[in-house]
Design goal:
Bound molecules: flavin-adenine dinucleotide
Number of domains: 2
CATH architecture of the largest domain: 3-Layer(aba) Sandwich
Number of strands: 16
Order of helices and strands: EEEHEHEHHEHEEEEEEHEHEHEEH
Structural class: alpha/beta
Strand content: 15-25%
Distance between the termini: 48 Å
CATH class of the largest domain: Alpha Beta
Shape: elongated
Number of helices: 9
CATH superfamily of the largest domain: HUPs
Radius of gyration: 21 Å
């Protein structure tokens, strides 16, 4: 069976969920071979094997941390040359997309970014994308070279499928030309304890209806009861009520969670562009004519300051 390279996103060997989703999708096309760069390969290998990796190719070098993505592209290219895979899959993070694009240029292949599903096809993998502010769903296949595909988080439920997960060292030579941009300092982001917005299975977002930064704890309380990330519309962000890093939409983050709850958000096209592929959408809005109700699975016409706390209490009560 053909091998499929899966680029591993991890923090010191703790594998992030989008990679487990990639392994699940990779198994539809062939045998997943994971590429783990940086420290923690042994820890990662256990998780990767549990989710179907037949092999884990690993390399660690100071250059992976000291420079921007180019040394990692050198390593992924080395894995590509060692394996001759049927496809290369990466998570659709900013880094994943840059590494994928650079690899595709180097190996003369086409690339598909932000796929939301993947299936095997007679002439290569077929990727589903949601395009033009999620107005169209397209299916595409790469016709040139080895398909390089980046997949959005939450596109598949990770499934366990134990495999050998044999760890093999990858020989990597970092090219001088890959050392053009050195990282000179790092400032860790203050942790909120909430999941990352683009990877979260549940997102609770607030808009202009939240009516002030001082009211956002109402949204945060619901998010925390559900273990969700907090999002915001541009109106809320522009008003300075919530950080830009949490903006959902065309000029913010694109999210695709299992559940998206929009409170006090009207549903402008630019907001929809960033959340319309969510699996289940719930809106709370006091205006029954708000356009957001056109795309929801469940809508509550009501004041968010009554509905959201009641929902939070109910979630907490059911959790015991
Ligand atoms: C180039 C461009 C890019 C953009 N990018 C983005 C983007 O990335 N993300 C984004 O979100 N927007 C973006 N916008 C802005 C977008 O057009 C809208 O202006 C914005 O999404 C509106 O935010 P909102 O829904 O929070 O506010 P509004 O449209 O003002 O809606 C507020 C809603 O809250 C409801 N409400 C008020 N009080 C309550 C209450 N107490 N309880 C319940 N409901 C209540 C109202 O009925 C209303 O429907 C962009 C615009 C442009 C031109």
């Amino acid at each position: 069976m053909a091998e499929v390279l899966v680029y591993v996103d991890h923090v010191d060997g703790a594998v992030r969920k989008p990679t487990l989703e990639l392994l699940t999708l990779a198994r539809r096309i062939g045998e997943p071979v994971a590429v783990h760069l940086g420290p923690g390969a042994d820890t990662a290998a256990t998780t990767l094997a549990e989710h179907g990796a037949v092999k884990v190719l690993t390399a660690d070098a100071p250059e992976f941390a000291d420079y921007l993505v180019a040394p990692k592209v050198d390593a992924l290219q080395a894995a590509y040359e060692a394996v001759s895979p049927a496809a290369v899959l990466l998570p659709s993070s900013t880094e994943g997309k840059e590494i994928g694009a650079r690899l595709a240029v180097r190996i003369g292949s086409g690339i598909i970014t932000d796929a939301v599903d993947l299936e095997a096809g007679d002439e290569g993998p077929v990727a589903t994308q949601s395009v033009f502010a999620a107005s169209y769903t397209t299916k595409s296949r790469i016709t040139k070279g080895t398909p390089v595909i980046t997949v959005k988080p939450n596109s598949a439920a990770p499934e366990a499928a134990p495999a050998a997960g044999t760890v093999e060292q990858l020989a990597v030579t970092v090219a001088e030309s890959s050392k053009g941009t050195k990282v000179v300092s790092r400032t860790p982001r203050e942790s909120t304890g909430r999941p990352d917005l683009t990877e979260a299975a549940i997102v609770v977002s607030g808009g202009r209806g939240v009516n002030g930064a001082e009211n956002f704890p109402v949204i945060e309380a619901l998010a925390d009861s559900l273990g969700a990330a907090v999002g915001a519309s541009r109106a809320a962000v522009d008003a300075g009520w919530y950080p830009h890093t949490n903006q959902v939409g065309q000029t913010g983050k694109s999210v695709s969670p299992q559940l998206y709850i929009a409170a006090g958000i009207s549903g402008a096209i630019q907001h929809r562009a960033g959340m319309q592929t969510s699996k289940t959408i719930v809106a709370i809005n006091k205006d029954a004519e708000a356009p957001i109700f056109d795309l929801v699975d469940y809508g509550v016409v009501g004041d968010l300051f009554e509905v959201v706390p009641a929902l939070t209490d109910e979630v907490k009560a059911r959790k015991g």
